[in-house]
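Notes taken during the Thursday session

The instructor put the following on the board and asked us to keep it in front of us for the whole hour. The protein is N-acetyltransferase domain-containing protein. We were told not to look anything up and to reason only from what is written here. First, the residues (151 in total):
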Amino acid sequence: MTIVPLSPHHHDSVETLLHEKGWDDHLNSYEGTIAFVALDGPDDIDPRVTGIVYGFAADAEYAELADQAGHQGPYGWVELVVVAQPRTELGTKLLRHFASRTAKAFPYLMCSLDQEKEPVDRRYAWARERGFVLLRGGPNMVMGASATDLT
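Then, after some discussion, the predicted structure tokens were revealed:
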């Protein structure tokens, strides 16, 4: 397994993964973001994408939540972590890779859990186990963590 920055030749494989995992609302939304993919082989032999993580700078609305919790910015946003095979630690590896590669730009990372996707309880537990804490509950739940706590 190799984790590399997303490039245009990964596009078809990423789209297939997102569709297979029920994240059609994220098709093409990772373009122009900070994104990394996990590959099942060397990048030069047309490997299959087995996972993706992507994010960007957090909106001011969310940065205010982190400020209120006593964290210093600038802030990044982890938009999505998707893996082909759950419970393999690949999602954790992707998240840690993202955090380590963006820590200088974004010392604090935030995310939201889609309340309409199941199983939200399992995804909430996964995020907490990796170091995220609840910043705002309810239907627009927001969690945050220091990038160094995630690496």
